[in-house]
Backbone:
């Protein structure tokens, strides 16, 4: 009897782990992570480690609800991974390291062709404090990979919350919280229907900076584009400061709470070279969207330039990599 019971559970486990058809009808390997031991693994990293190197088929790692207190790393040789939680409110990966933009990050992605859905990535350093001990680098996520998408995810931290470092990326219906340069890097990224939540007063900061984008040359194609997004929280907050000489950040048809610093943008170390920076707002609304006191060097983009930036197929989805991932959403 015990032998038959073993065979039954072994067969069920094998069925779950092998190629199965997911809810969208796309064949993929499935792995279940459950902290109580009811899945294939108890930790997210164990599940990632189990995937063969140079894998070329999609693997879905399902995370049962819970708070996974661990650092998670997806190395370059493990592409085609999907992390899927139940929702960003119930499925959280968190850690509290600080002091280094990469090593301190809770989640690190180096493999291309990646998707996350319904997960919050949190760096707990200084969160919940009335006043920060020391505001320093403490990323929740560090993305140094091409072709990555995030749907309904959260990113929570204080400084450098989301290191959107390199590659083409898409964020939809995400929540991003922080205070200092909390979306930063050299990424070529489109943020759609996302909430950017600013925290200043609760940690004793005088002002906040939402973005610090690092485009370095006019011919570089990278930049951060925010489409139909909302900026909420406490201010004053700058929409961005120029991390590099040709920084590019565009807010399109977005809504601003009354927390935006009147001048809106900061040239930072590039004062005197503002003409090379592309900071722009188009068709935005809300009490913080008044352009009357914005810096004089803010750009006005043509309809053709805007279309190139706010259309996924034109800005980030060359090769239809995003279209291929949408089958899993």
Residues:
């Amino acid at each position: 009897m015990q032998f038959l019971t073993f065979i039954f559970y072994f067969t069920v486990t094998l069925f779950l782990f092998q190629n199965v058809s997911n809810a969208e009808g796309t064949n993929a390997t499935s792995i279940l992570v459950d902290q109580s031991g009811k899945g294939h693994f108890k930790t997210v990293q164990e599940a990632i480690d189990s995937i063969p190197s140079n894998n070329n088929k999609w693997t879905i790692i399902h995370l049962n609800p819970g708070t996974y207190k661990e650092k998670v790393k997806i190395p370059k040789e493990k592409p085609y991974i999907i992390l899927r939680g139940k929702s960003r409110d119930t499925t959280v990966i968190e850690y509290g390291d600080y002091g280094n933009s990469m090593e301190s990050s809770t989640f690190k992605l180096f493999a291309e062709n990646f998707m996350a859905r319904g997960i919050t990535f949190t760096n707990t350093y200084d969160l919940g404090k009335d006043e920060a001990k020391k505001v320093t680098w403490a990323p929740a996520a560090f993305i140094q990979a091409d072709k990555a998408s995030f749907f309904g995810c959260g990113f929570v931290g204080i400084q450098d919350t989301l290191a959107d470092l390199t590659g083409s990326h898409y964020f939809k219906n995400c929540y991003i919280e922080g205070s200092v340069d909390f979306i930063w890097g050299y990424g070529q990224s489109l943020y759609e229907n996302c909430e950017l939540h600013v925290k200043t007063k609760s940690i004793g900061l005088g002002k906040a900076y939402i973005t610090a984008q690092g485009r370095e040359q006019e011919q570089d194609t990278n930049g951060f584009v925010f489409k139909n997004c909302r900026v909420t929280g406490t201010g004053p907050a700058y929409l961005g400061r120029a991390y590099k000489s040709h920084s590019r950040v565009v807010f399109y048809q977005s809504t601003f709470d009354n927390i935006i610093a009147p001048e809106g943008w900061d040239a930072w170390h590039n004062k005197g070279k503002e003409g090379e920076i592309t900071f722009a707002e188009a068709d935005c609304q809300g009490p913080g969207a008044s352009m009357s006191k914005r810096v004089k060097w803010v750009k006005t983009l043509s309809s053709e330039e805007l279309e190139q930036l706010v259309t996924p197929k034109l800005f980030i989805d060359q090769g239809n990599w995003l279209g291929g991932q949408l089958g899993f959403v």
